[in-house]
Design goal:
Helices cover 22% and strands 30% of the residues. It is of the alpha/beta class and 187 residues long. The strands form four sheets. It has a seven-stranded mixed β-sheet. The protein has a five-stranded parallel β-sheet with strand order 2-5-8-13-16, with helices on one face. It has a five-stranded parallel β-sheet with strand order 4-7-10-15-18.
């Protein structure tokens, strides 16, 4: 298998591989283009987001400075907001529902590396997708780790590190994030 085939199959892969790196370079170019478009030029920003992301619903806003690893693995629903300085390391797919707001300085990552020094010296990575439901508010400076599923109608408190799945209808916070209270679904 090629390193890209390994990556796409959810296996360990060499993140220094030229084909793997090619995806990052493509994403870097499109992020630079998106970040350079003035906020007032909604039409151009929307077109750039649609070229960068795998899919995007209507009324999608991504504020600068936005960074990602692939772009085509990012799928967002309608009425999506990524505030300033959001990074999505989308080596694996990131699925984000409708009416989601992501606070400034947030990191969503799908990639992890071995605990062993030998594995890290061999430039190994492994990716697991992230899923975020509808009606989610992610506070500022949150980190969401690989393989996490966040339910519908969830608030993630600022500064949280989400290491495990979060169920529907709750507020979660802390390091690591834990459910703090239940929320009513009022729609």
């Amino acid at each position: 298998m090629t390193e890209l085939e390994k990556l796409d199959a959810g296996l360990e892969y060499d993140f220094w591989d030229a084909e793997v790196d090619g995806r990052k370079i493509h994403a870097l170019e499109w992020c630079q283009k998106l970040n350079a478009i003035p906020m007032q030029d909604e039409e151009a920003r929307t077109a750039a987001i649609q070229k960068l992301f795998g899919s995007a619903g209507e009324n999608v806003t991504v504020l600068p400075v936005f960074n990602c690893d692939n772009g085509s693995n990012i799928h967002v629903g309608k009425n999506f907001l990524a505030n300033y300085n959001v990074t999505i390391l989308d080596i694996a797919p990131v699925w984000i529902g409708d009416y989601v707001m992501i606070g400034p300085g947030t990191l969503i990552t799908t990639v992890n590396h071995p605990l062993s020094p030998l594995g890290r010296r061999r430039h190994l990575g492994i990716a697991k997708s992230v899923h975020i439901g509808d009606d989610v508010w992610i506070g500022g400076n949150v980190t969401i780790l690989p393989g996490v599923h966040i339910g519908n109608n969830v608030v993630i408190a600022a500064g949280a590190v989400v290491t495990k799945d979060i169920p529907d209808n709750c507020v979660a916070g802390g390091v690591p994030a834990k459910v703090m209270k239940t929320l009513e679904r009022d729609i």
